[in-house]
Amino acid sequence: MVGGMRGLLIGCLLVATCAGLAGATGPAHPNSISHSHVTVAGSFARLELRCQALGVLEVVPADADRDGRLDADELGAAAVPLARYVDEHYRLRADCGGDAQAGRLLHGELVGLALDEPGSGAPAAEQWVELTLDYATEAPITDLLFEVSVFMPTISEHRDICDLTWNGVEVPEVVFSPGSQIRYYAPSSRSTRPLLDWVVMGVEHILGGWDHRAFVLALIVSARGLASLLGVVTAFTLAHSITLALAALDVVSVSPRLVEPLIAASIAWVGLENLLARGPRSRWPEAFVFGLVHGLGFATFLGAALAGVRHRLLPLAGFNVGVELGQLAVVVAVSLLLLVLRRALRGAPASADERALAPRPVRRIVSAGVVIAGVWWLVQRTGWIG
Questions:
Q1: Distances from the Cα of 123 to the Cαs of 27, 117, 295, in angstroms?
Q2: Which of 108, 186, 218, 231 lies at a 20 to 30 A Cα distance from 370?
Q3: Has residue 223 got a pLDDT over 90?
């Protein structure tokens, strides 16, 4: 009795993350992405920034009619403050040798501003703003120090995908993020960071994705043992890797308006099956089928990140490796905790069910939290509530 109560109490602690899932609606602007292209030619530099209108609305009071989206007139009226914001948060320092206090801080002049949207009345999440700043200097630019924090002070998940053309030579893309805002480039420099940038982005995406973590958690607690868990994780990994690659390479295309509710439904389904099942069982078929759907969810984010990227195989490989590393971290951490719980309940009767990876109280509490979270996300993503 004491052991069972201990398991129940520790199970509640285990599911503390999941218990908040129903209220964890995520950041106000998830999957925030911008693309920047910097061109240097002699003493001239140009910044072409393509960013989501939703991000613009969060840093500049441009929504005059308060309808939650931008129109061309609103964007035109906000041109000056937006250009000033970008100039202050996308800083280019020339001829500095990598020293943030040396060289020349360049200031850009707005020469282009446009709104790109899929159709009239599109929501801000589907609108893009294209802004161009020109920098003219008296002497040729010999190197550049990038200090990029555009949108990051207000959107902690924001990533800027930057590529550089230096006097006609294309330089591999780099990723700016809140933890990596400064990069230095000189023609003689060489960097191996591009692959690592995409790996880090993949890890952050899975560790910051409440929905994907909830699904993996439900699969873990339903496993009959470590061998069963290995089969489930392998099936899930294989499936989402397939659809992630196909979608990121534009072989298949599915609207996020369909994919996101399906992901939420898959979470609720797996949690409900756990509750209704008499005991743990092999879940690899569900893991594979729903993994295909989750892969499309990963691809929604990666597709936005890859828009305009010249070579996609390296980013795709790096991002997928990062997703797997993040997923592995979740599986190992939760599995170790469950093994500790099994040891704490060693004195309990060793029924077939109780020999499962997760003790019954833990499995039921976690599954109930996952169901609640899945239903909540489904209601949100189908537009039933704001």
A1: 17, 9, 24
A2: 231
A3: no
